[in-house]
Specification:
alpha+beta, GMP Synthetase, Chain A, domain 3, 4 helices, 58% helix, ribosome biogenesis, cytoplasm
């Protein structure tokens, strides 16, 4: 369970970074289908783990992650301007795999359901 203050700060950073990605960052490596999934701020407020999701190929994902890491100083500066904290958290970007994992699990469930339906038809016949 997180602390209420760090949860509020995490949500504010999530909103801010999402806005920056959509409107401020002009890096051509950054995919237009990049979204911030979650932000976890450490208890000491020194680091912000920013989980991103990119819809596209593996190359687009890697390029978007590199572009965000290169823009880390700008993003940290903007976080510092918006949030009045003693320490401005250092943004650490990480790729979120939960959407891909969910799609993979959904595909597995679909395959099992199709196989079960085929087996049921064989037994009924």
């Amino acid at each position: 369970m997180g602390y209420p203050r760090t949860n509020r700060i995490s949500e504010e950073i999530k909103k801010l970074v999402s806005h920056l990605i959509m409107n401020e960052l002009k890096d051509p490596r950054l995919s237009p289908l990049t979204s911030v999934v979650a932000v976890e701020v450490t208890r000491d407020l020194r680091y912000a783990n920013i989980f991103i999701s990119v819809y596209g190929s593996q190359e687009e994902k890697e390029n978007s992650l590199k572009a965000l890491q290169n823009a880390g100083g700008f993003i940290r500066k903007e976080i510092g301007k918006s949030l009045k904290l003693r320490y401005t958290p250092e943004p650490l970007f990480k790729m979120d795999q939960s959407i891909e994992q969910g799609m993979y699990i959904n595909d597995l469930i679909s395959k099992v359901n199709k196989r079960d339906a085929a087996n049921d038809r064989e037994h009924d016949a």
